[in-house]
Amino acid sequence: MSKVQPRTLSGFMELLPARQIQFDTMVEILRESFSLYGFTPLDTPLIEASDVLLAKGGGETEKQIYRFMKGDSDLSLRFDLTVPLAKYVALNYSHLAFPFRRFQIGKVYRGERAQRGRFREFYQADIDIIGDGKLDSSNDAEIPAIIYRTFTALGLRRFQIRVNNRKILNGFYAMLGQTRKATDIMRTVDKLDKIGEKSVRDLLTGEEIGLTELEAAEIMKFIRISGTNEQVLESLEEYRGRNEVFDEGLNELTVVARNLKAFGVPAENFALDLTIARGLDYYTGTVYETTMLDHPEIGSICSGGRYDNLAEYYTDKQLPGVGISIGLTRLFFVLGDQGYLNENLNTAPTDALILPMTDDLGPAITLATQLRGQGIRTQLYTEQKKFKQKMTYADKIRVPYVLILGEEEISQGVCAVKDMRSGEQVKLSYEEAAALIQTGLAQLNQGTPIQDKGAAQD
Amino acid sequence: MSKVQPRTLSGFMELLPARQIQFDTMVEILRESFSLYGFTPLDTPLIEASDVLLAKGGGETEKQIYRFMKGDSDLSLRFDLTVPLAKYVALNYSHLAFPFRRFQIGKVYRGERAQRGRFREFYQADIDIIGDGKLDSSNDAEIPAIIYRTFTALGLRRFQIRVNNRKILNGFYAMLGQTRKATDIMRTVDKLDKIGEKSVRDLLTGEEIGLTELEAAEIMKFIRISGTNEQVLESLEEYRGRNEVFDEGLNELTVVARNLKAFGVPAENFALDLTIARGLDYYTGTVYETTMLDHPEIGSICSGGRYDNLAEYYTDKQLPGVGISIGLTRLFFVLGDQGYLNENLNTAPTDALILPMTDDLGPAITLATQLRGQGIRTQLYTEQKKFKQKMTYADKIRVPYVLILGEEEISQGVCAVKDMRSGEQVKLSYEEAAALIQTGLAQLNQGTPIQDKGAAQD
User: Fold this and answer.
1) Tell me: the pLDDT tens digits for B239-296?
2) CB contact, 8 Å: B110 with chain A?
3) For residue B379, what pLDDT is reported?
4) What are the phi and psi torsion angles at A35 (to 5°)?
5) Could you give the CA distance from residue B338 to residue B387 in angstroms, rounded to a whole number?
6) Are residues A392 and A450 in contact, defined by beta-carbon separation less than 8 angstroms?
7) Which chain B residues are within 8 Å of A259, Cβ to Cβ?
8) pTM listed for this prediction
9) For the stretch B156-193, what's the b/e string if a residue is b when 16 or more beta carbons lie within 10 angstroms of its beta carbon?
10) How far apart are CA B237 and CA B225, in angstroms?
């Protein structure tokens, strides 16, 4: 028979078993972390009607969308988890309790140009808090705590959550009489990390934006405000009273900074950063970015912010919200690339591999059933192979314990338990074997999926 | 602004929060159950190249496939999890250890005619054990144990795993000299439950199949073999020695039946059933169906079997396997329809809802952080609303505990804990509150997602 070459599409991540377990462990930690903060899981379809999904239009994104006809239906694959959330909340408004806190971890699709580290199918992990009409700004203050808890649980240490408030920026540019140019200015200032201060200043005073040297200096002075959170807030207080929007933003930012300690976020993992603007059309208040201190070149690994109106394309209801998103597939790829994935993580598909050495499988099955009854993941290896091949299999799946059941063991009511890491082998009753394995697993399963080398001094 | 009507496509299940948590609980139990038997999780792309996905062709299924062009690429959405597995194993053959045991729980797509209870996007939950060249038949014997464990953990009681072996059927029809007509006969016999014995007999002796009355009687006698497992095997032994394939099938079926008890499957949840044939082109040995005893009209809720060659369209490697599949979305729908979903399951998105009654949120945040540190899912409710509205919110999300923090409580270093089920309210220290909640949750979270009314007498 002629064969079809098996292949996976470029831009689609497909993992080998050990890596898949590592990825799933990350997803599991995200779920647990989001749940701990009272977010409810949501699962929306991958496919939506194109007019619903593209209600907002999309510019750049629109070209990337997987859009097709099925019969008479014009369909599209979702390209983020925000539009489906907006649809969901508008559609189910009367059934939901507000603030509505939901998380969703799911695949989204963008037909980007194929290149290393870019994915066309990728997981996003989103949380959002949606208010009905209003949403208290203390919700914004909780987000850094969730980011901190999540990344810490994954094993990351050297990261920084950077926070700003769009109202402070808008208010500041209004003070300068530059409201009309604010978007251009922010877009330019956003490049500071990449192109440096001199180039930003040149662009600001250049033909296109056309600020005076004095105005540019004023802006540079403003965005260079830094120091501890207290120092930043103190410097910002000097601008208070000149613009209402600015003052409102400063109040909100103060709420975020003030409650950090009670929320358990250490000062070193947090910074007020006036250079951050993000998603210029969408965010209206607090904005967040998260960077890896030892790899700033990766960019933000968790971003988001406050918006005024989630679902304006579907409903007249005013639905303000605050949320963050993690590009999980890209993060996983980058972490692997930079050597952050914990190679000592237990990625065995099973905890105990039973090798029956007799034709009668009865005792081996009884042992397996008993171990499983105690929550130990157990596999029976019953293929007709040489002992050495069986042990090669055990090595290959990296199983921590091999249990050998020969006639002698069966007659004595015991099994031979081999600890595959130490190489030690002991004969134990079934109960003792289960206890030994459980003790070993408790230790073995302590690792986090990420191992932060930068935190070696901890 | 003119609005787009928010809607979800017909045939796409989208659940409200409480139902979603119930669904997720089922998925979590499946993952845990499959893991317990040493299956490794896999996650393959939703989209594949059409020539890869349709290597086998597809007849009926092919028309239902979501197939489209993106640029120059001819793409299709997966319609099951078996073809992607075949591709994966062929592609990654040298990296895998065999037997390769994998589970996958994921969405698949079929553009079926829209009607109640039919889904175009639905979850399948599959497990498969793939051998390299050979696969011992003791693997077939383990499958009923996995089915039993899985459905029991979900809360189902009154179900029956029905097992047959295609070799027994093929061998039997060979004995009758009817190998050529075997497929037609099996297809007819498969209708026994639906159309009754008389109609089956008429079809067998009808123009199309054209058996004699004697042959039809012989077949009816054979498929009517029933009784305990021992009785069925005994009856089958009478046919032994007349056909090699039959004998092989009988040996395999005997292995499955003999080890049931050691595998922990009660006799009442299992039956040898010679009427089962299933997937006539694909399965070659053991076949499984699982039916709900009180709702046979639903049909099989978990089916599968043994096949000779998983990936013949991609590779010359012989890869025999055995597997089962659960159509999870349809099962969930049907269970809901029949009143099997446990309405007492704890589907609250959070365990504790904190209501701060002071402007300073510090103490409330400290309490929330402390509860979360102990694994209690906690939400801060900080909206400016009347107390009554806050309690309405608590009722609506069905949170089990509300914690009230007023000035008095803060000055005393306590919080008022209200058990929302009993209505009782007590003042406790933060530590005592955490302990109370954890004790309550241990009890509250015991329920299974399915509640089997048929098992009320248990």
Assistant:
1) 999 999 999 999 999 999 999 888 999 999 999 999 887 765 789 999 999 999 999 8
2) no
3) 98
4) -65, -35
5) 39
6) no
7) 361-362, 365
8) 0.96
9) bbbbbbbbbbbbbbbbbbbbbebeebbebbbebbbebe
10) 12
- pLDDT score, position B458: 44
Structure tokens at A324: 């963050």
The Cα–Cα gap between A390 and B311 comes to 24
Residues of A in contact with B382 (CB under 8 A): 136, 138-139
- Does the beta-carbon distance from A380 to B46 stay under 8 Å? no
Which pair of tokens denotes residue A422?
Answer: 């130490």
Using a CB-CB cut-off of 8 Å, the residues of chain A touching B91 are 6-8
ipTM of this complex = 0.95
End-to-end CA distance of chain B: 59
Mutate which of A3, A62, A128, A370 to disrupt the B interface (most B C-beta within 10 Å)? A3
Which runs of consecutive H residues, i.e. helices, occur in B155-243? 166-175, 182-189, 192-205, 213-223, 229-237
Q: A165: burial class by Cβ within 10 Å (0-12, 13-18, 19+)?
A: buried
Q: Would an 8 Å CB–CB cutoff place A266 in contact with chain B?
A: no
Chain B's closest residue to A12, CA to CA, is B45
The sign one gets for the Cα dihedral A329, A330, A332, A333 is: positive
**Going by DSSP bridges, is the β-strand pair A321-327/A352-356 parallel, antiparallel, or unpaired?**
unpaired
Q: What is the DSSP string of B444-458?
A: HTT--SB--GGGTT-
How many pairs of residues across A and B have Cβ atoms under 8 Å apart? 256
On whether the CB atoms of residues B260 and B149 are closer than 8 A, the answer is: no
Tell which A residues from 399 to 458 touch B, by Cβ distance under 8 Å. none
- Looking at chain B from residue 132 to 171, which residues have their Cβ under 8 Å from any Cβ of chain A? 134-136, 138-139, 142, 145, 149
Report the gap between the CA of B89 and the closest CA in chain A (Å).
Answer: 9
Q: What is the C-alpha to C-alpha distance for residues A197 and A323, in angstroms, rounded to an integer?
A: 31
- Per DSSP bridges, beta strands A401-405 and A352-356 are parallel
Q: Which of B23, B26, B37 to probe the A interface (max A CBs under 10 A)?
A: B37
The parts of chain A modelled with pLDDT lower than 70 are: 1, 58-60, 279-280, 454-458
| CB-CB contact of B42 with B102 (8 Å) | yes
Strands (E), A26-120: 40-41, 47-49, 67-70, 73-77, 100-109
> What stretches of B238-344 show up as alpha helix (H) in DSSP?
244-258, 328-337
pLDDT classification of B113: cutoffs 50, 70, 90: confident
Mean pLDDT of chain B: 94
Could you check whether the bond before residue A266 is cis, i.e. omega within 30 degrees of 0?
Answer: no
Cβ–Cβ contact A72 with B under 8 A? no
**Residue B163 phi/psi, 5° resolution?**
-125, 140
- Integer Cα distance of A176 and A223 in angstroms: 14
Residue in A with minimal Cα distance to B379:
A38
Enter the tokens of residue A26.
């990350």
CA closest to B367 among chain A residues: A262
Measured between CB atoms, which of B48, B142, B349 is closest to A39?
B349
Could you report the per-residue pLDDT of A256-293, keeping only the tens digit for each? 999 988 899 999 999 999 988 776 578 999 999 999 99
d(CA B136, CA B99): 9
Contacts of B253 (CB under 8 A, 6+ apart): B163, B164, B165, B168, B233, B236, B272, B286
Tell me, what DSSP letter sits at residue B285?
A: S
Residues of chain B numbered 35-64 and touching chain A (CB < 8 Å): 35-49, 51-52, 55
Q: Are B17 and B347 in contact (CB under 8 A)?
A: yes
Please, what is the end-to-end C-alpha distance for chain A in angstroms?
A: 59
